[in-house]
Amino acid sequence: MKVTVKRKLPYVPVVIETEFIKLESAMKLANILPTGGAAKAEIQDGFVTVNGEVCTMRGKKLYPGDSFGYEGQEYKICSHEA
Question: How many other C-beta atoms can be found within 10 angstroms of the C-beta atom of residue 56?
């Protein structure tokens, strides 16, 4: 019997094909929230972190290597080349 162990990543990868993505768009791309309006409200209310710090700027540019958190889950921006 062969057992395969998959290591769970401590984050959910969000793959982008552009140089950067705005925080609000990244949340929509990751299917965290259904609309940009919902993402905007959560960001402005201080429920989202970027690189470990609370961020209230919905237009914050995220580049590959950056991460954001929402409801205890971390998401990491990755380029399509990675």
Answer: 13
* Residue 56 near residue 46 (C-beta atoms within 8 A): yes
Q: Say what the pLDDT of residue 14 is.
A: 95
34 DSSP assignment: S
pLDDT of residue 18: 94
Stated pTM of the model: 0.84
Assess whether pLDDT exceeds 90 at residue 45: yes
> CA nearest 28: which of 53, 48, 8?
48
Angle subtended at Cα 37 by Cα 33 and Cα 40, rounded to the nearest 5 degrees: 85
